[in-house]
Amino acid sequence: MRILLTGSNGQLGLALKEEFKKLGNVFEVISTDYDTLDITNLEQVEEKLTHEQVEVVINCAAHTAVDKCEEDIENAYKINAIGARNLAVVCEKLGAKLVQVSTDYVFSGEFNNVMVEDIAYEDVLSERIERAKLSRPWREDDGVAPQSIYGTSKLMGEELVRSLCHKYFIVRTAWLYGEGNNFVRTMLKLAETNTELSIVGDQFGNPTYAKDLAIAIVNLIQTEYYGTYHGTCEGTCSWYDFAKKIFEIKEIEIKLNKVTSEQFVRPAKRPFYSSLDNFMLKLNGLNTFRTWEEALEDYLDSEDR
Ligand SMILES: NC(=O)c1ccc[n+]([C@@H]2O[C@H](COP(=O)([O-])OP(=O)(O)OC[C@H]3O[C@@H](n4cnc5c(N)ncnc54)[C@H](OP(=O)(O)O)[C@@H]3O)[C@@H](O)[C@H]2O)c1
Asked: Domain 2-304 falls in which CATH fold?
């Protein structure tokens, strides 16, 4: 099977290269990144994919700097939407399969439940924590309503892929960490110079190890189960819970303060609740994801080696 990776030096791209390496000769992998294949250039995409006679394209290229996207709007849409379109058009011509990686930010980020009016909450943080517990993780067929440029541009990418090629797997993931700059590394770095940290406690999602996502994608491309999937580690937590677990595993003593989104304003609006249910993977018997805690232990262990 001839597979082409775009954005292959990013977190997911590196994890996929590692997985394919373990699997040996079954897959011939052509790794590209911005310098060898700019996905926003249709001619380049057509030339490369045709020349390489690819059977599968895994699009790991994206504009992932969520806050920067708010001002770098043109580039966000060019990379996240037009880039996906270019790959879809050429994959359709070649009869190749396309994996388009997408995001939990396509959802509104509101809590997925009805407000329980008669419970008196101590404060807004306690109320949001309670509402998260009562929420149902988003399934693939739930309505989308992105709240940021990153989210809208990724959604446009999804829609273009759906309308322009047949053999697609759209895989929405979230809170990704692997080789590269990520939340885990940021926390550990901050702990070197701080004895106390304030972490957002009212945004909930699924921390996902890039290795686990890579395994799920490798399984999917060997099927003809086309469609839209959620692919995240199992379980929901807040950024505060995530940080707490990182320091627990690493046995680092540090004081953590739980703060609200209002106390940690950023240029792009963040979802309160974007936990995903891997419903379609489960239906197809392909949900290989571990709990986020197990995956995190594995990741931290691999970082120590
Ligand atoms: N990271 C997360 O928390 C997260 C959450 C949900 C979904 N996702 C999705 O998961 C996928 C993988 O994310 P990631 O964290 O692995 O991303 P990443 O580490 O930011 O890697 C993205 C890669 O794409 C490359 N790239 C940018 N513009 C390109 C272009 N025009 N042509 C070709 N390559 C280009 C980047 O190269 P340069 O570095 O040279 O720009 C980089 O190597 C993306 O679709 C992302 O939207 C990520």
From this structure: Rossmann fold (3.40.50)
